[in-house]
Amino acid sequence: MSNHLTTSVIGIAALRILMEGVRAVRIVAALAVAALLAGGWMMNSDNLADDDGSEEEQNPLMFAEGDAAEDDRGENEESQPVVKRGGGEEDEDSALPGQLIAGGIGALGSLLVGSAFFEFVKVTVLVALVSPMLARIKSNREDMLTRGRLLGYLEANPGIHFSALRDALGLANGVTAYHLHFLESSGQIISWRDGKLRRYAISSLTKEEVSKIKSPILGTRLAILEVLASSGNLGMSGPEIRKKLQISRQLLSHHLSELRTGGMIEAASEARRPNWKVSDSGHDALSVSKEVARIEAVA
Fold first, then answer.
1. Does one domain contain both 43 and 146?
2. β-pair type (189-194, 197-202)
3. Residue 160 and residue 134 share a domain
4. Residues 245, 143 share a domain
5. Cα separation of 22 and 25, whole Å?
6. Residue 207, CB half-sphere, CA atoms under 13 Å: how many?
7. Range of the domain at 264
8. What's the rounded Cα separation, in Å, for the pair 32 and 129?
9. Tens of pLDDT along 112-167?
10. Number of independent structural domains in the chain
């Protein structure tokens, strides 16, 4: 029941938005490639036309004889002025291939720049361009194991974003995007956009559980705040926190970044790699979280 509820509330809407983004990326990429091919073909055609026009230089004797014959036939005729036509049109036609190539490069470049600065754009581009190639490869035992690892990690760390999940499992960008897209399309996981990031969780979560995941002071983050609160103003270093909580470096870095962005923790010194301590806002949030946990335990 909870699976269907979550999918209807979040999964379908998020998947529809992702699919619309994938469709837009594929259209832009197709138009860009078409512009590059058309521009290259037109430039090649112009070069061939220039080669044909130099035929007179390649056969001077033949054209000299033709010119002499024309001189004999027309030596009593008045010379006629030569009118040049279409100079402006030729300039526009010659500039068109360059404009097409520049437009195609600009479109592809915009996708690359967006992928470099926004994780949700990178995920969309990977799903749009890499997944179709990987989808042609027949599913095998290794694919099933990879998806099982992803599901297990998402179940243990709901709400983790794409880059942290990729680094934690040691997977490539394209492989991670392909399997996440497959799992989301089959209704096994859900995803949502969070600023520049895209976060994932298993689809069996209820609406209330998903809303809790979006809070920065629950689960692993709540444990980090509790550990830091016990250290006082001296704080603790990253390795010390990892040793206390037995979590990976990538996952700790992800949660510390989110807590720092939310103003829950702050640096205990101005060192290059300072210890971290709980801020005043973090202490308030920690008190509220403990009270909520107590009430839920009694209920």
1. yes
2. antiparallel
3. yes
4. no
5. 5
6. 7
7. 215-298
8. 13
9. 777 777 777 777 777 666 666 555 555 567 788 899 999 999 988 888 888 888 98
10. 2
